[in-house]
Amino acid sequence: MRIRQLEIMLEDCAGFPDPDARSEQYATPAVVAARFLHEADRRGDIRGMRVVDLGCGTGILACGAALLGAGEVIGIDRDKDALAVARKNAEKLGAEVTFLEADISRSGAEIPPADTVIMNPPFGAQRAHADRPFIDAGLASAEVVWGIFNSGSHSFLESYVRRRATIDTVISATFPIRRTFAHHTRDVMPIPVDFIRLVRTEEGEQ
User: Fold this and answer.
1) What residue ranges in the chain does DSSP mark as E strands?
2) Which of 53, 84, 191, 195 could form a disulfide with 62 if both were Cys (CB 3.0 to 4.6 A apart)?
3) What is the pLDDT confidence band of residue 110, given thresholds at 50, 70 and 90?
4) DSSP states of 41-73 as a string?
5) Which domain holds residue 48?
6) d(CA 83, CA 151)
7) In the predicted model, is pLDDT for residue 180 greater than 80?
8) Cα 44–52–49 angle (5° rounding)?
9) Which residues 6+ apart lie within 8 Å of 120 measured at CB?
10) pLDDT of residue 153
11) What is the CATH number of the domain that holds 134?
């Protein structure tokens, strides 16, 4: 499937019914989701793989992975209302995705093993280090983790995952955040982001 075709299909995904500012529930734009997933697929991390989407929200990344031919896709989020929308989005798109309710930020949360983890974690604008539980859960689940992070996060990530994983891909992109919350002052705010691929090391598997 071509990237533009995937983008058009994902534009039909509904967003958060009642987005929570503290949880940074921004809808991932279809143009960003399509490019992110194609970059992962180009490296052999989507098609035929067992893919887990951590903090899946309304399911745009999970649905996109399924449409690209993932062998199995599991979306995980703690928000029941978002998961209800995600299930409707998957049904509308004909995407086979299993959605599970779990709070990734809580220790002991059961995250199923995967070949690839994909995620668009909180950027940490409202709560510092809000992305760390996602990184930890992702590396515990899969050998390969793809994430959308604030531009310039490379040094932090490299330090945070030292001895557990290496960064082998950093791709610059723009994430247009639409006016969602009261503190937003512009209709669309373009945020520079990086698509980052983490590969778990042997030491990280222990």
Assistant:
1) 50-54, 72-77, 98-101, 116-119, 144-150, 165-178, 188-200
2) 53
3) confident
4) HHTTSSBTSEEEEET-TTSHHHHHHHHTTBSEE
5) 3-205
6) 28
7) no
8) 30
9) 28, 36, 55, 57, 61, 147, 148
10) 86
11) 3.40.50.150
- % of the chain surpassing 70 pLDDT: 86
Residue 106: which pLDDT band, with cuts at 50, 70 and 90?
A: confident
For residue 99, CA distances in Å to 12, 75, 88 come to 19, 5, 11
- Say how many domains are in the chain: 1
Q: Do residues 149 and 196 make contact, with C-beta atoms less than 8 angstroms apart?
A: yes
65-85: average pLDDT: 97
Q: What is the distance between the terminal CA atoms of the chain, rounded to a whole angstrom? A: 37
Average pLDDT over the chain, rounded to whole? 90
Give how far the C-alpha of residue 60 lies from the chain's centroid of Cα atoms, to the nearest Å: 9
CA angle (140, 71, 132) in 5-degree steps: 25
Contact 173, 35 (CB under 8 A): yes
Residues of the chain by 3-state class (helix, strand, coil), percent to 5: 30, 25, 45
Give the Cα separation of 174 and 130 in Å (integer): 20
